[in-house]
User: What shape does this take?
Amino acid sequence: MASWSLRLRGRSPRLGRVADNSGAGYMGDYLPLLAILVIGSLLVLSMFAGNRLLRPSHPTPEKLLSYECGVDPVGEGWAQSHVRYYVYAYLYVIFAVDAVFLFPWATVFGDLGWLSVAEMGVFIGFIAVGLMYAWRKGVLTWT
Amino acid sequence: MSEFAEVLLRVLAVLAAFLLAPLLVGQVEHKAMAHMQSRVGPMYAGGFHGWAQLVADGVKFVQKEDVVPAAADRWVFKIAPAVALLPYLVAMLVIPVGPGLVGQDLDVGIFFVLAVMGIGVIGTLMGGWSSANKFSLLGGIRVAAQLMAYELPFVLAAASVAMAAGTLSLSGIVVAWEPWWLLWQAPAAVVFFVAGLAELQRPPFDMPVADAELVFGPYTEYGGLRFALFILAEYAGIVVLSALTAVLFLGGWHGPLEEQLGWLWTLLKTAVVAFLVIWVRVAYPRLREDQLQRLAWQGLVPLALLQLSITAVGVVATA
Assistant: This one.
C-alpha cells in the first residue's frame, strides 16, 4: 500500500516519462482504473436499484412477447447467417493484429533513421497487397 | 493516505464529467439540430429554453417498467447496456484536459483508449443478439461488421500521430504536438473522425438502427432505464471521440495563454468537434450498407496507409 502511494505522489506533473516496470510502481498506474471500474459498476447498480424501487411491474403475456416490428413474431428470433462471411472476419483479424504491431514500433522508429522507413514501406506494402488481393477476390463487394 | 484521497478525487472528477458532459452534448444536439431544421426544440422543461429536458427524460426513464421479453436471453439482455456504457467511463479516465490534469496518465494511453472503445460495441452486439428478435440480430451483426470495417482505419490514423510524437502517452502526444501537424496529420485527423463516427453508429453511419429497415436495430426490445443507458453510452461516446480528436490532432491544451487557460482550450476544441458530430447528423443522409463498407475499405484504409508513409518520411526527414 505504502509503496504505490509513494509512487503516485510525485508522478502527476511529469509527462512523457519512461515507465519503470518495477512491480508495485507500474501497477500503481492502474489502481485508478480499478477504482473507476468499481465506482462505475456501483453507479450502474444504483441506477438499476433506483429503477427497481420506483417502477411499476405488471407483466402480462402480451407485454412479454417480442415486439419485433409490431406484428406477432413468426418463428424463432435467432436466424442463421451465411458461413462465407468468415472471409470478412479473417480480413479484420489479420489487419487488426498487424496494426497492433505498429504501436511499440512507433515509439522508437524515429531514432532508427531511413532504414526504419524502408521497413515501414515493407510493412505498408504487405497490408496494401493484402487489401488489393481481397479487393480483386471480390471480398469487398456487397451487392 | 492523502495520495489515496487524491486518486479518489481524480476518479470522482472523471465520474462527474462523465455524467455531465454527455447531457450537455445531448442538450446541444436537441437545440442545435432543431434550429438547423427550422424548429425550436424543447422549450418547456426547466423554463429557460428547455434546459432541463434531459433531466426530465432521466426522471421519466427511471420510473418506467422494466420489460424483458420472455424469449430473450435474460441476463445478457440485462447487462448489455452496462457493457455498452462503462468503457467510455474508463476511456475518459485517461484523456488529459491540461498538463497534469488527467484522471490517470498511462504510458500506453492511446493504445489503451482504442482497446477500451472497442468493448463498447460488444454491449450493443450483446443487446442485438440477446433480444431474440430478427431485426435486433441483424442490427447487431451490422454493428459488428461496422466495427470490423472501421476499427482498422481508426487504429492506423491513431498510430500515425503516435509515430509523429514518438510516444503512446496521450499527454506526451500533446506535449510533442506542433501547429504544423494540423496540415501534416490532416488526412489522419479526417480518417480518425469519420471512422470514430462510424464506430459510434452516429448518422450518417447509423445503418444498425435504420428505422425504415430494422425498426430500431439492437435497441428495439429495450425500454425504460436500459434504453436510456444505451442512449447515454452514445453521447458519452461522442464526448470521448471529440476529446480524443482534440487531444490527438488539434493540439489539446496548446493555444494562447496555455499556461493559465490550457484546460479551457482542450474543452473548447472538444466542444467544437462535438458540435461537428451533431452538424454531420443533420447534414448527411444515411449511407447504404455496401456504401458504408466501401467507404471504409476502399477509401479510409488506403488513405490511412498513405498517411502512415507520409508520417514516417516526415519524422525521419525532420529528425
